[in-house]
Amino acid sequence: MTTTAARASSTDKVTFDPEELRVARIRALRGPNYWRLSPVIAGDVHQGALEKVTSVDIPGFTERLTSAIPSLESHKCTRGHFGGFIERLVEGTHFPHVLEHVALELQTLIGNDVSFGRVVPSGDEGVWWLIIAYEEEQVGLQAMRDAVKIVRACISGEKIDVSAICDELLSLHESSRLGPSTGAIVEEARRRGIPVRRLNNYSLVQLGLGRNLHRIQATLTDLTSAIGVEIAQDKDDTKRVLENIGLPVPKGDVARTVDAAITLANEIGYPVILKPLAANHGRGISGRVSDDDGLREAWVRSSAYGSRIVVEQFAEGRDHRVLVVNGKVVAAAERVPACVIGDGEHTIAELIEEENKDSRRGVGHTKILTKIPTDERAVAHLARNGRTMETVPAADEMVTLAATANLSTGGTSIDRTDEMHPDNVTACEMAAGVTPETGRG
């Protein structure tokens, strides 16, 4: 590689230094901005001697880029029709424009719905402003950095693994995106024209501005009392508060050692269930435990998520989640554990593979459903029920792959709002109406 952007060799072959192409001052504009009402990522593109070079000036550039990211063919660009961007590449377009489309497409490939992009002169000689839309800030920032890597590789002719880049972006997306409940609130706020600003990389979000400003942390608002939050995060405290207002709760207590848990289980009577006191997303929940040996095995899994474990009666039945707004039940959903239905011909592994082809299933919460896992926990769950991944279930036999029905572990949700019994409606409204300071409704 030469150290200058372009010079003739002894064979009159022109070479280019891709390192001349760089993006500096990459930053997120989180609120309404000069370019649009929605957030954007902005960066300063420097090209050096590549300023006067276009895509057509580098032999094989377009072919290498479209081979690396075939889906760029769908970009209409200013032509307004399928393949418009490819036409621009073939005719010759500058690299800031190429970066714009690559950065947007990388986000699209992992499920983000983004299409807005602009390249404009910055006012400083040799510097262009690159503006792209984003859904998740960290993903948008990284997509711009990755776009530079990919375009540089296509300039130099080096191989680059775009699939690996997308996998890393997807992992970043999953670790930084809002959860489904918080995301639904934010989406509805935006639909209503309420300004939204994310305040950290977790679930702290600002809704509105000025006197109408409120903040939410996940699904909790700034109108929620601190003591209410503390109670809701502690399964045992929550149960005691609900019991004090007359609602039925399972018998149980908190154990710090496996021996104490066994003593509790024998006092309560098997079957029991183990739950980490303060974990969430179904982490560490054991499912049905029928004897001392099973409890010891379950303790290992549950205690990995906390030193205090709730041991309580196991209640047979279906899993439901109920939403109460302003003291009234507005929605109820039955949550069904990750499962497959046998056909008498295919193994459980094959049935899972087929189910995961459903376009509605993605990694984590990237889509409305999560792919059914085939990890150690799924294998262990099958083993507890006398099955393996190679078992062939009978026709119409339902085989569960998890002890819990969380959507994050491949479960599904069924609307049961109109089927709720009035007694259950009352119980849920009573639970939501508990006054934390007194423990009374």
Task: Please describe the topology of this protein.
Elements: E1 6-8, E2 14-16, E3 22-29, E4 40-46, H1 61-68, H2 84-91, H3 95-109, E5 117-121, E6 127-133, H4 137-156, H5 162-176, H6 180-191, E7 196-198, E8 204-207, E9 214-217, E10 220-221, H7 226-232, H8 235-244, E11 252-255, H9 258-268, E12 272-276, H10 292-302, E13 309-313, E14 319-325, E15 328-336, E16 339-341, H11 348-355, E17 361-362, E18 369-370, H12 376-384, E19 398-400, E20 412-415, H13 422-432
Parallel strand pairs: 17-18
Antiparallel strand pairs: 1-2, 3-4, 4-6, 5-6, 7-8, 8-9, 9-10, 11-13, 12-13, 14-15, 15-20, 16-19
Describe this structure in words.
With about 450 residues, the chain is of the alpha+beta class. It folds into 4 domains: about 5-175, no CATH class; about 180-225, no CATH class; about 230-315, ATP-grasp fold, A domain (Dna Ligase, domain 1, 2-Layer Sandwich); about 320-420, no CATH class. Helix content is about 35%, strand content about 20%. It has 13 helices and 20 strands. The chain has helices at about 60-70, 85-90, 95-110, 135-155, 160-175, 180-190, 225-230, 235-245, 260-270, 290-300, 350-355, 375-385, 420-430, and strands at about 5-10, 15, 20-30, 40-45, 115-120, 125-135, 195-200, 205, 215, 220, 250-255, 270-275, 310-315, 320-325, 330-335, 340, 360, 370, 400, 410-415. Strands 3-4-6-5 form a 4-stranded antiparallel sheet, covered by helices on one side. It has a 4-stranded antiparallel sheet with strand order 7-8-9-10, with helices on one face. A 3-stranded antiparallel sheet has the order 11-13-12, with helices on one face. It is globular. The N and C termini lie far apart (about 75 Å).
